[in-house]
Amino acid sequence: MTMTACKRMVPALRSVAIKPAFVPARSFSVSPFMREPAPTLPAKKPVGAFRGGIFGFLSGALAASAGVYFYILGEYRIANEMLTEDITALQSATQRLQTYIGELETKVDQLQKKK
Q1: N or C end of the chain, less CB within 10 A?
Q2: pTM of this prediction exceeds 0.70
């Protein structure tokens, strides 16, 4: 290398060493992403007020009828169980009464034979 080549190199090295270490941050407003237009979503077909009203009414009526159906079904089951218990109690009471009447008839027959 010649002397002139070294002199040319030194300013190049000096410029690298002199460059500031602080690099300012890029502002958010100048980012290329923000300059692009936002992607558009496909337009939804609007539901008319009449169709929406009918749909709301039918869904509400369906929910109310399902609630009433299950409420009545529960009440029916409870009433059926109570009726079954009452019938069982009536049958056992009738059976006890028949045995009591049978015992009384045998005692009355024994008393009439003694006389």
Answers
A1: C
A2: no
